[in-house]
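Thread: "does anyone have the structure for this chain?"

Original post by V.I.:
We have the sequence but no experimental structure in hand. Need at least a predicted one for the grant figures.
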Amino acid sequence: MKLKNLYLGIIATAFLFTSCSSDDNTENDIPLGAYDNGVLILNEGNFGTPNASVSYISNDLETFQNNIFTVVNPAKVLGDVAQSLSFSDDKAYIVVNNSNEVEVVNRYTFASLGTITEKLENPRYSVVLNNKLYVTNAISEAVTVYDATTYAYIASIPVNKTIEKIVVANNKLYVMNAAYGYGNEVTVINPSNNTISKTLILEDGVNSIEEKDGSVYVLCGNDTQSKLYKINTTTDNSTSLESTTLKGASNMDIDGSKIYYTQEGDVYAMDLNAASFSTTPIFSTTYVQYSTFYGFGVIDGKIYSGNANGFTKDGIVTVYSSTGTVLKTVNVGIGPNGFYSNN
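Reply from O.Q.:
Generated one for you, tokens below.
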């Protein structure tokens, strides 16, 4: 996602010890804006109050800045509950839940590019496919579709049940029919005609969905077990792993060849091709319900933890190594709920 410039240097007289010239090909990675080469931290803010925000931390953890949307766009307010964020080319689409809007910005400079409001009813998550933006809506229980360039409303796809996170795989849309740990279905949508092609019945407690290498992974956790499904996106059939020892797994994120997840204050990791759940945590932290791991993500081997801090004061983000060593701790906005690699 960067501008790559190739510089060809002909080395001759500068190095007299060389009997012939040689080519020195150097690839320079030029940042496309102040917020390139780092991680965007989405902070919900307090429900009913337009104090959502976005923070930025560089990949090397040396540069950090809060309230980047406000800093770049001082005349605008991000809104009430920044729920999620998705990327397409140089754009970032910030779904602002209680404000019923999607704010569009340049992902590298964070300059405002527009605001989408039409047909949004408690929007939750979004994804872009074939230059169309798909947004799930909790109240209308529909996926609304927009032109990702002009932001014009195109259509609505009625699902008529709970819809939350949405991912793209094999030119299809996969939508979680579950929220807050309740629900056991995933809806498959054919975007060529905006119809539901299949509904997958899984284990109760669907809480996470990820695409990796053309497959879709779904994590379910409840009081009796944890279950991980791998969906073949050609057939939409699935295989699964389960554990009755580890109950209530959540917060799945995939980084490289590993699947990470949490259970209360414990963090676990297992290989994508593992034959069973890992039930031994790679590290543990003090658990406070609705605060610890309110946000969770793994990016380039670093584990990002968002502590909501009871929604009474600034949230706390802690960055860990893959073995649990604390690398960085920063205070962010209220309710840090997500981490997005912006490279």
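V.I.: this helps a lot. The chain has a mean pLDDT of 92.
O.Q.: and The first strand starts at residue 3 and ends at 11.
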